[in-house]
Amino acid sequence: MKLLEIPINERPRERLINEGCDKLSNEELLSIILKTGTKNKSVKDLSLELLKQCKNINNLKNMSFEQLLNIRGIGKVKAIELLATIELGKRIFLNNNVKNNKRLTSSKDIWEATKYLFYGKKQEYFYCLYFNNKQELIERKLLFMGTINRSIVHPREVFKEAYLHSASSIVCIHNHPSGDVNPSREDINFTRSLVEIGKIQGIPVVDHIIVSDNNYYSFYENDNNFII
């Protein structure tokens, strides 16, 4: 059945207005976002096809631009709108409102406040958080996006940003897409190198946090050799 053949009061938009978002099915919500179908496929059918392709609604958050374009009926505009909607949802429900000058005083605080940045990512993302002498966040920088098993960041990039923002300390944070937050030998060597450079530069690296969707590892909390 085409959308126009559905009685007005039973159409997704009208049901949302009259009954609320929570009463709509996944297919109805997607129909509202997609807006239109194609010449040969109604928006309802297109929504059902999208749900079929992602198999589980939870997998929709991991679909890439290219994967969406492979679904017949979804062009660049619809793919962009879907990705923007998903990202906005992540920021609303996973972002702990990390703002400049927000005090973050523990590794757990930092993980809770930034984990939305890594949610569902399939490759490594390396960020540095820069703090003033009150441990208030003054800047956050994405310094590297890499493959699923390797992350290479040159220390000069880490400290260049620290000087640009007059930071007093640095916390590094990156994800392990595998879900295993235990540090690799490369992670350990790189972290210790950053700590030593930080001591020389007078801008200490106070922690390096490795995260997954549900857990984190803090060098500061776990490594007895991690001396600031």
Provide structural commentary.
Helices cover 40% and strands 14% of the residues. It contains nine helices and five strands, in the order ααααααββαβαββα. It has a five-stranded mixed β-sheet, with helices on both faces. It starts with 11 loop residues before the first helix and ends in a 6-residue tail after the last helix. The radius of gyration is 22 Å and the shape is elongated. It has helices spanning 12-19, 26-34, 43-54, 65-69, 76-94, 107-114, 155-164, 185-201, 219-222, and strands spanning 125-131, 137-145, 169-175, 205-211, 216-218. The protein is α+β, with helices and mostly antiparallel strands. It folds into two domains: 3-94, DNA polymerase, domain 1 (Orthogonal Bundle); 107-222, Cytidine Deaminase, domain 2, CATH 3.40.140.10.
Q: In a nutshell, what does this entry contain?
A:
The chain has helices at residues 12-19, 26-34, 43-54, 65-69, 76-94, 107-114, 155-164, 185-201, 219-222, and strands at 125-131, 137-145, 169-175, 205-211, 216-218.
Mean pLDDT: 86
Distance between the termini: 66 Å
The unreliable regions are none
User: Mind describing the biggest β-sheet?
Assistant: 5 strands, mixed
Strand order of the largest sheet: 2-1-3-4-5
For this structure, the CATH topology of the largest domain is Cytidine Deaminase, domain 2
* Helix percent band: 40-55%
Give the C-level CATH assignment of the largest domain.
Alpha Beta
**Strand percentage, roughly?**
5-15%
Q: What is the H-and-E element order?
A: HHHHHHEEHEHEEH
